[in-house]
Amino acid sequence: MAEQHFGRIEGVSKTYGGGIVALSRVDYDLAGGELVALLGPSGCGKTTLLRMMAGLTRPTEGRISIRGRVIDGPQPDFGFAFQTPNLLPWRSVLDNVLFPVEIAGRLDTRARDRAMELLHVVGLEGFARARPHQLSGGMKQRVSLCRALVHAPSLLLMDEPFGALDELTRMEMHDLLHAIRQSTGATIMFVTHSIAEAVYLADEILVMGPRPGRVVERIRVDLPYPRQAAQRYDAQARNYERRAGAALWGMHA
C-alpha cells in the first residue's frame, strides 16, 4: 500500500540571478513507494526541481516537504544517483558503496551486510574487492545505485542515471531498478529526456514544458507489475508514449 502523503511540492518557483525563471509554480503530491519520472526538454528545470527536493537548492517561492518535514537543506536520509557514477578510484567497490554510511559515522557490521546484499541484488557480489577501473560503465552505475541505497534512504533522487549507457545496458538497468524497487519499496524521483524510459519505469510521469519550467501534463502509467521487457513494445505502452510526446510538443493527445 502506497504512503499517500509521503511528500508535497507546493507552489515551487525558482528564479536565478538576472531574472531567469527556471521553474514556475510547480505543485505535486508524491505518494510513498512510487517512481515519478520528470520528463522534459533540456533547460526545463527538471534538475533544478530535483536539487530543490534534495535540499541542495532552495526555492525562491513555495516549499517542499517530505513526511511533514520542510526541506531547507541537505538531508542525511536521502539517496542520490547521477548520470556520472563518480566512484572514488582508490576505493574498492564495497568501500565505495559504504562511503555514505562511513561519512555518517554508521559503518558497522549491519551496514556491511546491507552493502553486500545490495551487491548481490545487482550481480556484483564477486566484484566487492575490485577497483572502479576494472568495471564496465554499466557495472559502475550498478555500484552507484548500491551506494545510493545503502543507508535505506526515504527518498531516492535520480538525475538521468542511465543516460550515458548503451541501449542494451540501459534496458538491463531499467529491469534492475524495478527489481530493487520491489525489494526495497523505495520512493523515487527520476529525471529523464527519454519518453520510452519514463513510460517503462514510472508509476506517474510529470511532463514539463520549456522554461520557465512547469508541469504541463500528468500521466498515470497503469502498466501491470512486475513489468516485462515485452511491455516496452505493446500497444498500451505506445499509447502512453504518444500521449507524453504530444504533451511535450504542446498538442493534445
Low-confidence parts: none
Question: What's the helix count?
Answer: 7
Termini separation comes to 31 Å
CATH architecture of the domain at 1-75 and 200-253: 3-Layer(aba) Sandwich
User: Which whole number gives the mean pLDDT?
Assistant: 91
The description of the largest β-sheet is: 6 strands, mixed
Work out the helicity level.
25-40%
Radius of gyration: 18 Å
Net shape: globular
Q: Which percent range describes the beta-strand content?
A: 15-25%
CATH topology type of the domain at 1-75 and 200-253? Rossmann fold
Class by helix and strand content?
A: alpha/beta
Order of helices and strands: EEEHEEEHHHEHEHEEH
Please report the first level of CATH classification, the CATH class of the domain at 1-75 and 200-253: Alpha Beta
Main sheet strand line-up: 6-7-8-3-9-10
CATH superfamily of the domain at 1-75 and 200-253: P-loop containing nucleotide triphosphate hydrolases
Count of individual beta strands? 10
What is the quaternary state of this protein? single chain
Can you describe what's shown?
The protein is of the alpha/beta class and 253 residues long. It has a domain at 1-75 and 200-253: 3-Layer(aba) Sandwich (Rossmann fold), CATH 3.40.50.300. It has helices at 46-54, 93-103, 109-121, 137-149, 167-184, 195-201, 235-248, and strands at residues 7-16, 20-30, 35-39, 61-66, 69-70, 78-82, 155-159, 188-192, 204-208, 215-220. Strands 6-7-8-3-9-10 form a 6-stranded mixed sheet, sandwiched between helices. Strands 2-1-4-5 form a 4-stranded antiparallel sheet, with helices on one face. Strand 4 (61-66) and strand 5 form a beta hairpin. The two termini are 31 Å apart.
